[in-house]
Amino acid sequence: MRDAHEPTPTPDRREVLRLLGFATAGGVAATVLAACGDKEQDECEPCNCDTGTGGTDDTSHGTGDDTGDTGAPMAQDPPWDYVELDPDAVAKRAYEAYYQGGCHYAVFEAIIGELQDKVGAPFTQIPTKMAIYGKGGMFGWGTLCGTLNGTGMVAQLLSSNAANIVSSIVDWYSNNELPDYEPEEPVVDFDCPTSVSDTPLCHVSVTRWCLASGYGGHTDERKERCGRMAAAVARKLAEVLNEELAGNPATYENPDEVNTCLGCHGDGGIRDVVLTEKAPTCELCHFNLASEHPDVTR
To answer: Is the model's pTM score more than 0.90?
Structure first.
């Protein structure tokens, strides 16, 4: 039993935090740590974790992006309420974000970041840097273009019509001369050529642009092209979301040639070997169809 005149021992910082269960990251913890203030600073282990409020690529901690908003409860399952955004402001934000974290991050940050500024919670609880993984077709694998990956994340969060939104934008991306965005203050100032990708795949889209433009895949000009592509896709997404808000939801139908192919190779076909349900064209990958495919017209 401790003597009544014996001084009360100074609490150990880590023990106090353990007992509190790390209840908060703010005022309570700060008060508790103040009680440990007479302990030598070098006896306390520094915290090296990133809280999600800084400018690093580490998004393993923190619930907000750059706002630090962690006080509001998370909202219900998607879709969350969308408010009209300025497509040009979205495009500019995406272009700038591309040079911070790549194409996927650019589109996701452009829409969600604008909603964070305009609406606040619950959007302020989304760490937009989670989307950095999609750059270069998923960390350089050249698969789905990151701009379309970001489109899917945004559409799923904001609309019950996500499938048609994504499909319509993939179709637009695959069949139009892009990029069609010109920044007011370009990072790389040049006359950026356009190209038609015929596909949502990063590798093919970039290669077709390189062949059309004459620039290499690892040049600053190619990076600038992708930054402008991110801006173009983000602007298109904002336009589609605004249209839906106004009562004009996106729709999509496959080209006739794709439906013809799926008649045999899709669900219920005589050679059901294709899981794909949608495509801008089949001949992009199956380029030998004309010469080697059996004549199905006879």
So the answer is: no
